[in-house]
Amino acid sequence: MQENPTITAAEIARLAGVGRAAVSNWRKRHSDFPAPVGGTTASPEFDLIQVEQWLRAQGKLPELATADRLWRHLAAASDTPAAGLAAVGALLLARSRGSRTGHPDAQLAPLLPDVDALADELGPQGAFDELWQRFSAPGPGRPFATPDDLADLMIGLANVGGGSVLDPATGSGAILRAAVRAGSTAVYGQELDQDLAKLAGLWLALHDVPGEVCAGDTLRADAFAGRTVDAIVCHPPFGATNWGDEELGHDPRWIVGTTPRTEPELAWAQHALAHLRVGGHAVLLMPPTVASRRAGKRIRGELLRRGHLRAVIALPPGVAAPHGVPLHLWVLRRAAADAPPPARALLIDAAGGDLADTAPRVLAAWRAFAAAPDGDVEEAGFARAVPVIELLDEEVDLTPARRQPAVVGEATGEHLVRTRERLAAIVGELPALLPHVTPAPSGPEGSFLTVGELAKTGALQLIGPVRAGTSTPAPDGPSVLTVQDVLAGVEASGRVDDRIGQEIPLAVGDVVVPMIARQLTARVVTAEGALLGRNLYLLRPNPTALDPWFLAGQLRTSANEKQSSSLSGTMRFDIRRAQVRRLPLDEQRAHGAAFRRLEAFEAAVRETMALGAELIQLTADGLARGAVLPDGDSR
């Protein structure tokens, strides 16, 4: 760890909620402002503790929760966020077992009071989970973790159940946590980065999950050599140029042949197969070029011939890093040596749309195929069980989009007409939906209260965000409102096991706000029956003090987005810092009605954009195939 936690002038500005010019003025006008302790003349660095003390004395420092304060100090004092969290995690694990682990690092010692306070408040596991949430937010020095929704889909495809799972490229452990949520009884991992391996292992230990995470190079130094598991789920590194192909040329893991130097991802696929029990499944996230690169043609062919490769699934762009590439999922199954290979492999093209919408459809198609692998699964433009003999052509190209049946041409014309009619109807309604507003005669005015202050006065109740849980799936239970549902403005679509640690029913008039999102979003609950999902704040207004639509409209302003976003600059929001204008209840209701109409206008605009894009594609496809013809008036 560094000698002192330091902070730049830009970070001081974000900490105090002001511009950088204000910090420059403080340095010039206040002789007691802390002197730089490092950096350069152009970009000085200051002692974080001294700056906090000065800001607090000046009344310029917003009060932070213990977890926020501890994380900020920890991130500033650590070589990396992972190293800092691992050091605190070791202390919390020792505390959960009734002991202390020697003397902490000198730079960790000043943080012990906050560590103890957070552990007293939430318990060692809860304290670690609070810090983990802050570590998991995107930011400098933090690796791209596999998103939870994608990890859950991968675990679902592997059909983990109560079996054992291995992730040979563990990272910070997102896939292992998904396996635990799905009911896995033992999880194992290996990770090249020692700090990340330690973190993933600490999570397992603090949650009493049987398993082990080892540090090391998986391909060169397999920590689990000779061990087989029920499922392997993995997000391997892409495009590695130095993965050990020379020293591993005759490795026994290459069960379908020596892996070419330019195909490192296929080495990971064979590594996974080598650790599977017969009949077990592996799911790997792959770059799309692995499905068609010429150098990998022989390995792809052998995986198909021997019945190991069961499905290739094209995902929407942006589901994981690198976000601009539409990645693939490969589903492998360890086939028995004497079993006849299946006659078909499943190819799914889910590259269009959003993962939250397509994941259930992907799982349904895979399960239907797995139940009858020689059946004729076919959904036009989406999924097809392709004969293996058809795939074993000159290229052995497994790109799903190139093997899908075309959409029926006759239906294209009818669909185009219906889409055009729906678009015209919505566009015609837009002017009536937009609320009418006039400039205030005296300009903006009024006083404001923060959400935290409103909660203290009883004007609202602040609940959440709900932390992760490991409940058993209950497909017939109530639905769960997810972050994606709130951002899309749709009804609750999640399941009771969607990573919630407690069940909080939502009521009409509740206001929900995602803790992590690209922009601050607030939605009013309009129907009962759903449960609060993970990473959502719930604000329950007192109807005698606050109108819910007024509250939601006040929260989603640009000013509140800046006011409540985290110090690191990531889009993690502390809604307690958001400000709400003080107005009498009758004026709130008038503003709330305008905000409600504005939300309806926003939903209509969003649907207009979606229908417009669909109409463009349908028209282009129909004209190109001859399914529709110009009407003679086109110019």
Automatic annotation (TrEMBL):
<protein>
    <submittedName>
        <fullName>N-6 DNA methylase</fullName>
    </submittedName>
</protein>
<dbReference type="Pfam" id="PF02384">
    <property type="entry name" value="N6_Mtase"/>
</dbReference>
<dbReference type="InterPro" id="IPR029063">
    <property type="entry name" value="SAM-dependent_MTases_sf"/>
</dbReference>
<dbReference type="InterPro" id="IPR052916">
    <property type="entry name" value="Type-I_RE_MTase_Subunit"/>
</dbReference>
<dbReference type="GO" id="GO:0032259">
    <property type="term" value="P:methylation"/>
</dbReference>
<keyword id="KW-0808">Transferase</keyword>
<keyword id="KW-0489">Methyltransferase</keyword>
<dbReference type="GO" id="GO:0008170">
    <property type="term" value="F:N-methyltransferase activity"/>
</dbReference>
<dbReference type="InterPro" id="IPR003356">
    <property type="entry name" value="DNA_methylase_A-5"/>
</dbReference>
<dbReference type="GO" id="GO:0003677">
    <property type="term" value="F:DNA binding"/>
</dbReference>
<feature type="domain" description="DNA methylase adenine-specific">
    <location>
        <begin position="144"/>
        <end position="352"/>
    </location>
</feature>
